[in-house]
Structures are given as structure tokens and as C-alpha cells.
């Protein structure tokens, strides 16, 4: 009890995009998704978004990916900035054996 930790995939206070991913994943794979599943989905979504502009070289694709902002994904909104993925996290605390969000930066 009382452990506090950050989560990127907040299913306790889920956004509509998180709920949509959760429902689609559960229906497709007959199991519940974890944080790594959601992060992989977001990474694939970023690549697909980058390919929509039909880059003709790797450098064009890289530049598009490195300057992508405001992507709505399974883990909430994220942005690529300075070669890093920036996203807001929720803080979850274990209280009497249950997970409770004590701070949600996505809302």
C-alpha cells in the first residue's frame, strides 16, 4: 500500500482515445492491453501519420517524425521534441490494495 508510480496508459480515468484502443484491443485479442501494448500502438500510429505525407526519402520521414506534435494516442496526447517523446503521465497510488489516480495530467 501507499506506493506511488507514474503511468502512461491510464485506464482508470481513460480518455476517449484510450477507451477506443482498449475496446478494440480487447475485442481483437480477447485479452486486456498493457502499457507496452498502448505504447507500441502509439509508435505505429506515429509512423503511419508520418507516412501520410508520402516522404520520398528517409530524411523526409525522419524530419516529419521529429517535428510531429499533438498526436492523440492510446496513452493520451504526445509530441516529439528534441528527439524525445513528450507526454503527460498520471500518478497512481495503491490505496488499500486498489489503484487510484492521484494526479491526471491528461485531463
Query: Rg, please?
Result: 16 Å
Name the average pLDDT.
Answer: 91
| Main sheet properties | 3 strands, antiparallel
Sheet-strand content, in percent, reads 25-35%
Category by helix and strand content: alpha+beta
Give the overall form.
globular
Number of helices: 3
Low-confidence stretches: none
Distance between the termini: 25 Å
Number of strands: 6
Strand numbers in spatial order across the main sheet: 1-5-6
Tell me roughly what share of residues is in helical segments.
Answer: 25-40%
* Secondary-structure element pattern, one letter each: EHHHEEEEE
From the structure above, extract its key features.
alpha+beta; 3-stranded antiparallel beta sheet; 37% helix; 107 residues; single chain
Structural commentary:
This protein has about 110 residues and is α+β, with helices and mostly antiparallel strands. About 35% of the residues lie in helices and about 30% in strands. It has helices at about 15-30, 35-50, 60-65, and strands at about 5, 70-75, 75-80, 85, 90-95, 100-105. It has a 3-stranded antiparallel β-sheet, with no helix packed on it. The longest helix has 17 residues, at about 35-50. The protein starts with a strand and ends with a strand. The model has no long low-confidence stretch (mean pLDDT about 90).
